[in-house]
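SKP1-like protein structure dump, as promised
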Amino acid sequence: MVTVRSYDNEEFEIEDYIAKQCTTLKNIVEDDCASSVIPVQVESETLSKVITYLNVHGDASFGEDDTKQFDEKFVDEDFPILTEYILAANFLDIKSLLDLCCTKFANMIENKSVEFIRSLFGIENDLTQEEEQNHRQQYAWAFEGVEDD
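C-alpha cells r here:
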C-alpha cells in the first residue's frame, strides 16, 4: 500500500499495483525513496478521479469495451477539468491518461476557428487586422474546413 498526499493535503491510500501505473510513484517506491507519505502536486479532487481511472485500467475484470466506455465518459469534461487531468497525468507520468486527454483535447479544437481557440485558451489577439489578413491569405490551407463558431 502506498500513501499519497495531494497538494491540498488530503491523503489517499492506493494499492501497489495502482501506484506502479504511475511512473513517478513507481520510481519513488522502487528507489526506496518513499517516506510514509508521498506528496504530489495534484489537487485532491483531480487525484481522486485519476485514482479511479487507474483502478479501472488496473482491473482485469473490466473488458476492453467497458474500459473504452469508461474512458469516453472520463474525458467528457470541459476545458479546465481536462487541463487538470493533463497536468496530473504529466506530473505522475501516466502515459495512457496523458494520451487519452490530449486526444480528447485535440478533438475539441480540431477544425475550430482561430477565434474559438483564442477564447478557449484566453489568448489575446495581438495581430493587426492587416497582419491577420496576410496570415489568412499566406496560409489559406490552414483555414480550410474550419467550422463556424
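Strands lie at 2-5, 11-14, 38-39.
lmk if u need the other ones
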